[in-house]
Amino acid sequence: LKATPIRPALPIPFLSYRVRADMALGSKLPLLVLTHGAAWCAGLAGANLGLHLAARRRPGSWLAERTTGGAFEAPRKNYVVTVAGQAIVLPPLWTLSWVLREPSEPWWLGAQAAWPTGEFLAYTSGYFLQDAVVHWADNSPLVALHHLGAILASVAASLTSGWLGLLLTVSMVYELGSLALELGDLGLCPRRLACWLLIASTLVPMAWMVAALCASPPPACGVLRASGDAEESLRRRPIPSSDRRPANVAQ
């Protein structure tokens, strides 16, 4: 990364220097996601294990108490790291990813590999991995499957050549919907409101995806279309006269 003194995208004094991601970071983004994801996984797992030990030492404490009538019905200790990440870690990373973007290049449907983007993907992959392991006994098979899909999606997003800003934003909105549901379980948000927020945070990103499909198909579709066009052009290419053989020659 190289600090280059250019005009910031927003008129914020402390952003007089923008940290711009060069082409090398784009190629190293998957490695950053894997290595930093492992670090996040270890740190978050340690925090969750500490909460687990604290709850075991004090069975009657707030941490050991299970939520009832909510979406997950798990010990309250399971919510601490989750809520902290969704409320404190991910929103600033998404904001920095947008603020530190290169305005002259596409961000929503592009693939600007700035360091906050890598940390966002690294955090999500590391979080879901440690949560699947540490809270294995409390997670349902469906939740475990969701965690596996989220890990694979985070790594796949680091390999994309487009839609990175859109995928990052969709993930952020999904996490905010989950945050509302968890706050409802903890009694910090009306559960009816939490359910409506979850529904809205699901439908709105879906609408964004449909609009993006119409405006600019994802890179994978472009690759498939290009390969299909290449195959069709090869079929239609005339055979050179030197390669032609008389019809009466035995095959």
Automatic annotation (TrEMBL):
<protein>
    <recommendedName>
        <fullName>TLC domain-containing protein</fullName>
    </recommendedName>
</protein>
<keyword id="KW-0812">Transmembrane</keyword>
<feature type="transmembrane region" description="Helical">
    <location>
        <begin position="29"/>
        <end position="51"/>
    </location>
</feature>
<feature type="region of interest" description="Disordered">
    <location>
        <begin position="228"/>
        <end position="251"/>
    </location>
</feature>
<feature type="compositionally biased region" description="Basic and acidic residues">
    <location>
        <begin position="242"/>
        <end position="251"/>
    </location>
</feature>
<feature type="transmembrane region" description="Helical">
    <location>
        <begin position="148"/>
        <end position="173"/>
    </location>
</feature>
<keyword id="KW-0472">Membrane</keyword>
<keyword id="KW-1133">Transmembrane helix</keyword>
<feature type="transmembrane region" description="Helical">
    <location>
        <begin position="193"/>
        <end position="213"/>
    </location>
</feature>
